[in-house]
Amino acid sequence: MSGIFARRIADALSVSGSPDVLVRNLSVFGQDDWKRAQDWLDQSGLALGFWDRVKRLGAEEAVPREIRARLERIFAEHRLRVAGMAEEFDSINRSFERAGIEYAVLKGFALTPEYAPDARLRTAYDYDYLLSPDSLEQAAQPLSMEGYVHRREDENHSLRYTRSAITPRLSPQSEALYSPALERAVELHTRLWDPELLMIPLPLPNDFLARRRLRHWQGLSFYSLAEEDELTFQVLHAFRHILTNWCRLSVFLEIARFLAGRASDSAFWGRFWERIRNAPPLPEMTGVVFSLAARLFGATLSAVIDTQIMQTLPHPLRLWVDRYGYDSALANLTENKYALFLHREFVPDEAAWQAMRRKRLLPLQRPNRAARASSSKLSARLAAGWKQAGYVVRRFAHHSLGDARYLWESRRWERLRNGS
Fold it and tell me: Are residues 10 and 90 in the same domain?
C-alpha cells in the first residue's frame, strides 16, 4: 500500500480544507493502485466514510469502475448490517435495564453524531459496555436470554460474549466484513484503563457510571458516558491501540470530527481539562492522540487544549508524533514497532519496562487460528494446515522485521530524544 495514496485518502476525509479538490486529485491513481488499496481501506475503517464523501461531492469518476462497484456493494450491505445491529443493540439494553443493571455504552452508537455523522458509515464488530464489577455476574442471565454465552476473558480483563463458539476469521478485504450475517460480540468492561496491561498507572476517577447520561438515537434510548468522559475513553482507547501496534485510522478521524465540532466550545473544554488534569499522565496521552488527529485530518484544537496540553507536551512526545506517529498511523500502526519508543516514556518502573519490551519484541503467545478445515476429510485438514502454517510464517517474518527495524532505529531515537 502506497504511503502517498494513504495520505491522499486521509486528505480527502479532512475535517477542514477543500475535500472536493482533494477527492478529485485521487484520479491520478490507476486501477492497480486502487486494487492494492482495498484491504487498507477496509482495515483502516475508512472505506464507508470515503465512499459517502465521494458520492456527496459527485466525484465518483475519480474512482475506477470496478472499485466503485465494490464500494457501492459494501455500502449497501453495511446499511442492512447496522439496521440489524440497532435492533440487537436495543434488545440488549432493554434486557440490562429489566435486570436492574446500570450500564454505559462505549463506542458504537454512542459516537453518533459528534464522532461519526451516521452510524452506517463506521464499521463495528461488537457492543462494548461499562458495568460495575458487582454487575458482571448478574449480566450473564440477560445476555443468556439474548442468546449470548460467555466465551473468554480478554487480556484487558473484559468479558466477551458471543452467540456461536467460533467466530469466522475473514481476510482483511473480504466483503463479508460488512455483511449483516457477520456475528457481533458483547464485551463487558469494569474500567476504562487497565494499568496492568501496559504497565502504566493512571489514577482515573471512579464515578463514570454515576455521571452517565441518557441518549437517544433514531428512536432508541440508551445510557452512555458523560461527554467529557466519553472523550476521555476515546483518548484511552486510541492510546492503548497505538501502544499495542494496531489502531484503525478511522479512530483518529472520529476524534478529529469531535475536535472540529467543539473547537469553539470553551465551556466544554474547561470541563474536560478539569476532569483530566489530576490524572497524570492522561494529559500527555491526550496530547499525543489529539496531535495525531489534528495532523492526519486537519482538526483545529481549542485554545484551552492548546494552552493547557499542547504547549506543555514534553519534547520526546512531540518528537515521536512528528518522526514516527503520522506515518505509522497511516499504516494503522501495524508496519513497525516504533510505538515502543513512545511507550517507554510512560512506564516509570525500569523492571516493568524491560518485561514489557521483551513481551512486545518476542510475542510468544499461541498464534491465532487463521484457517479451519471445511470438513473432516484428510484433504481439507491438510489444506487448512498449510494455510495455518503460511500464516504463522508470515507473522514470524512480520515480527522479525519489526524487531530488527526497531533495534536499528533505537540509537537514532536516543540521539534525537536527547537533542544530540
Answer: no
